[in-house]
Amino acid sequence: MATDKKIRVDGPDGPVYFAEGTSDAEIDKAMSAMHSDASYSSRANQFTPSNEKDAAYTPAYLGKQIDNTVRGIANGATFNWADEAAAGMGAATGVGGDFGEYSKNLDAERKRNQIAKEETPYGYGVGEIVGGVISPLNKIAAPFEVAQGASFIPRYAKYIGNGAIGGAIAGTGAGDNGNRLESGLMGTAFGAGFGTVLPGVVELLGKAASSALVRRLSGQTTAAKRSLANAIATDANSVDATNAYDWAEQRLREMGPEASLADIGPNVTGLASSSAAMPGKALAQGTKFLEGRAQGQADRIKQAALRAAGADSTEDLIRLRSQEAAPIYKAAFANNGVQIKSEIIDRLLPDPAIQKGIRQGIRDIEMESRLTGEPMHLADYGLRRNPENGQIEKFGTPTLRQLDAAKRGLDIELQSSKATIRNPQTNQLTQYGMRLEGYRKALVGELDRLTTDANGYSAYKNAREAWGGPTQVINALAHIDKVTNKTVDGRDLTAKLFGSADSRAKVKGLFTADPARSEENMNNFYQMVDAEEQFAANKNKILGNSATAYRTAAQNDMREGQHMTEAAVATARHGIAGGVGAIFDSINRAIKAPPVAVANELSPMLFSNNPQENAIALNALRRRINAHQMIDAFAPTGRSLLTGANRAGGYAGSIPVQNNNQ
Which residues 6+ apart lie within 8 Å of 410 measured at CB? Predict the structure, then answer.
């Protein structure tokens, strides 16, 4: 019947319309004649209003609208396969349809869907789209994760892929048994188009809104400052920093006096990489700063180690060790000439390893004597130099000093990295190395025993402890110096110094002067070394010309301008006409300041470790940084909107199919 009647009554086969003014009795009579169910008329008159204007205010009408909207959601959530599922259930069980009558049930379900569309066009339509967006089937229908910030081609390839797959599934579901393939192909085409256009529009609107808000919050500024502020805010948000400006200041403090803004986060480093890739001033300034800083790295680490040890040089530590320990050793060797009675010493002394240890120990003592100016006499060690060949040889009986020289020589041997002493892979003592360690412990034990008085006080043990503290520091400095000199471009420096228990124990020797703060001081030194390693890594990233995602994004960001063509570029780029976008992009770059000019403005801000200059640069960007951070905080919402738009576009590809099949 025509839909321009004023009174509507819902019957089993759909709505029936009567002329305005028709009485309830006449409507009841007509409906009873049309349908044999005698009780129908009472239900119809009870629930159907006499005027369509009043229909929206009755529970029955509202219930119908909700029911139709829910039907739309169900259809969208199943990508237009809800009617097939209901028809199949009715055919299989007789519930909700006729048993064994799939085709009949399917026709009935589709008629109900059509009635729902007519009765609740907006609710049903919106319900379909919402169902398509929230459907669990999107794991299949939209398998590609949508991500903001990805480059243009990968991002839009995902939009197209998701839209085409969702449109294919929904289009096939909307088709009839005779035209499923045709419907699926139509849904694929429209889904790919809608699935690309809708998120493109969302991107464009979101970008326009965020740019307007940032300008409102921070005022006008240059492309270079916009790029740097955006990169800082993005890095701050990636670590959930509350305030991006404060975070940037803290990062500079944590990384130490050599840090520049280019070091504080990966996005800023990517921007620095883009800047340094531009010929001219930017490249020259970036190269000079980064190469110069790299050349001083080894010396900075060594100086930091000396500061931790409280000394100006290793030579100072050697002199200090001798000065503090010499009087105690002198007391220990007061009875140096006494006859040594020890079966252990008698067994060990003839061994070539002990003899070699004596020679190495004497050589170390001679060098120390030259540094300190303290005289050293071989006779005190029961030794003399052969006048014919200059070789050291035994003279007289062994002395306490000779045994101490042997012990010192074994110390030197055990600290070496010889393959016979230590496993090259694990740095653990070999079997031969463990034998030498046994010899060393035996010598120490006998020297302690031989120098112990009646009260149980061992002067030699006390002297060893006085000597051992500075020795640990000296050995730690030697280890750090060795590792630093062998490390190429600062790579893996932290791992080499702190990665193994053995290396960490050696480094810890730096901090023996203050045992209570040993761990704290070591952690501070670790942070300094870690920062130096990061500086080296950033130098390689920035000057290595590697086309990373950060760098590509930064180059795109630097090219964003404030000219009117930007809107045309963005519109074309994010729409279907990608080719037109390329033309606009070329025009836009031609009339804007070139990237080289932007890079030249960026380089002084990025490549400086002057605290005052960095503070000035950050302060100039404070409002812009915080504005960008506020906008970036909505990134998860933006991703959700893009995902929803992409899914909605894919499902919307089936709407032309539905209209075509009516």
Answer: 353, 354, 357, 361, 436, 439, 440, 443
